[in-house]
Specification:
The complex is a heterodimer of chains A (250) and B (304). Chain A is α+β, with helices and mostly antiparallel strands. Chain A contains 6 helices and 11 strands. In chain A, strands 6-3-9-5-10 form a 5-stranded mixed beta sheet. In chain A, strands 8-7-11 form a 3-stranded mixed beta sheet, with helices on one face. In chain A, α3 packs across α6 and α4 runs antiparallel to α6. Chain A is globular and about 75 Å long. Helix content of chain B is 26%, strand content 23%. The chains are: A alpha+beta (250), B alpha/beta (304).
Chain lengths: 250, 304
């Protein structure tokens, strides 16, 4: 029976014009592309104008800062973080308003998302790429007053200089919440619109209070472009540490 | 019937035997009249057109398209029967993408002689219409079999598979993409429908191997190398299917010491490979076929 089957197969193979050829040996390897391989000059020539345009634009001056800013400059709030949160408020609010007819109440970004400092001197497109290399876009979440309270609790607990705008938090000397205000008003029984990134709005950096939001509006506006547009709008950026998040002394 | 034995050797062992003993070496070399097809592949290049800077903490001075071009040209000079593939995510990662939207990536892949690529999730980063726009710069095939793009702008621009004829050999290649929901926003992929890749792989590999009699079947996959969860990955795909000889993977940016060898649903060997990301490495798989008049029963040797 087996033999018959075998012969049948041979017959079948002979009948087929194209029979797959027999594979006998396979060799796999990985080649590292390093400087032992010479660059192809024609390809370099082809890339050059593309690269030069990027370099030119990246180094084109958009604004100016008289002093360097780093996210670790101070506790609780920093010139760099304040600038970033205020930039989102100023640039993203008109976009959100045109889509929904509403205003952004608060901006919240995360400390970990500030990927670089800004040196004193010219602010360029590259500056925006340095502080925000990722492609995240602005998202606006509607939070209930209860969810907003959780957002405040998160900031009080973390005591980290997460960039905020539209929100003021005052801690007592023991580090507990003394009071907080939204646009200089105490919290009301109402919905608040919180602008953040499409990463954080999904609960990134343990910002779980966003997860229960019943409404999220994604703006087609990259955070990096927010900063580029903001820098273009401002002749100079001279930000200070302020009282948006601070601790009372004894 | 035919005894198909599998012998796996490692690069290190080969190097040793090459020095140590001719006798053993001769058992793991293709016969002198065997015919060779060479496959070169990359994945997740992510717009890394220039090498990493020399002060990069992880990959100083590695990668670079103009070097990769030189390497590919050297291989082709050595064996003209060479095919070049990419497993997706050519886009996104450097300002080249932000400024030019993928135009330069596709133009350079065309100049390097790529034959095909597949659609990675980051290809959608500037929207599906941008993929269509950039494909105008591509002289290679865009292969994907498990995205139904018939209700999108990509309709007619993506093929499920392609058969490449090299030196009398038919090399069948199909593409698979990762589930987009939850990974890419719907506004970007629009009406693209994701279909179960295992079923599609069965169907495509059957068409290529059994109906079109391809000598080799290659899958360009952007599913990812391996997940602990039951989410489909390249290793699971290899185990659950048949008729696939090589899976060229991507998405997980996996650096492997050597290509993985997996037994498929009927006990045949499948090679699964991935070469990190950013164009730091090129994978090279050489397939040797017995000459047609060579009727010896020979075991398949895989050296990785």
């Amino acid at each position: 029976m087996k033999k018959f089957y075998f012969l049948m197969c041979i017959g079948c193979f002979l009948a087929c014009k194209e029979q797959p050829k027999q594979l006998s040996f396979v060799k796999g390897q990985q080649i590292q592309i390093n400087d032992s391989i010479p660059a192809e000059e024609n390809i370099e020539e082809f890339i050059r104008p593309y690269r030069e345009r990027i370099t030119q634009e990246m180094e084109g001056k958009l604004s100016y800062t008289p002093k360097a800013m780093y996210k670790s400059d101070y506790k609780l709030n920093t010139p760099l973080g304040n600038m970033m949160a205020d930039a989102v408020m100023e640039m993203a609010n008109p976009v959100f308003k045109s889509k929904t007819g509403r205003d952004i109440d608060i901006v919240l970004l995360n400390y970990g998302g500030i990927r670089s400092g800004i040196n004193a001197g010219a602010i360029t497109t590259k500056t925006a790429y340095n502080i925000m290399p990722f492609e995240n876009k602005v998202a606006v979440a509607e939070l209930s007053s209860k969810e907003l309270q959780l957002l405040v609790d998160y900031l009080v607990k973390n005591k980290t200089a997460h960039p905020i705008s539209g929100l003021q938090i005052i801690l007592n000397a023991e580090g507990n919440l003394e009071e907080f205000n939204i646009n200089a008003e105490p919290i009301q029984e109402q919905s608040y619109y919180v602008a953040t990134s499409d990463y954080l709005v999904k609960g990134g950096d343990s910002m779980d209070f966003f997860l229960s939001s019943k409404y999220v509006q994604l703006l087609d506006y990259k955070l990096r472009n927010v900063f580029i547009d903001y820098f273009e709008k401002k002749d100079s950026i001279d930000y200070q540490r302020d009282e948006r998040f601070y601790q009372l002394e004894d | 019937m035919k005894r198909l034995e599998f012998i796996k050797t490692t690069g290190a062992a080969t190097a040793f035997t090459a020095v140590g003993g001719i006798g053993l070496l001769s058992t793991i070399k293709p016969s002198s009249n065997a015919q060779q097809v060479t496959i070169l592949h990359t994945n997740d290049v992510h717009s890394h057109i220039d090498p990493f800077p020399s002060n990069d903490s992880k990959y100083p001075n590695l990668g670079g398209v103009s070097r990769r071009h030189s390497y590919i040209q050297n291989v082709i000079a050595e064996n003209p029967n060479t095919l070049v593939f990419d497993a997706g995510d050519a886009f996104q990662g450097t300002p080249y993408f932000n400024f030019y939207g993928g135009e330069l990536e596709y133009k350079l892949m065309s100049k390097m002689g790529y034959h095909a690529s597949t659609i990675g999730n980051h290809e959608f980063d500037n929207g599906i219409a941008n993929i269509a726009a950039q494909l105008a710069h591509a002289k290679f095939d865009m292969l994907n079999a498990n995205y139904d793009v018939s209700n999108t702008i990509l309709d007619g621009m993506v093929q499920p598979h392609q058969v490449y004829e090299v030196n009398g050999f038919s090399i069948g290649v199909f593409g698979l993409g990762i589930e987009l929901e939850g990974l890419v926003s719907k506004e970007l992929y629009k009406e693209t429908k994701y279909i179960n890749p295992v079923e599609i792989a069965q169907e495509q590999s059957k068409i290529l191997k059994e109906d079109l009699n391809c000598d080799l079947v290659i899958c360009l996959s952007h599913l990812g190398y391996s997940y602990k969860s039951n989410r489909i990955d390249d290793l699971k795909l290899a185990k659950q299917t048949k008729n696939i000889d090589l899976i060229i993977g991507g998405h997980t940016h996996t650096f492997l010491d050597q290509p993985s060898v997996v037994e498929n649903a009927i006990g045949d060997k499948v090679l699964v490979n991935q070469v990190g990301w950013a164009g730091i490495n090129v994978g090279r798989i050489d397939f040797y076929f017995n000459a047609e008049d060579d009727n010896r029963n020979q075991s398949l040797v895989i050296e990785v």
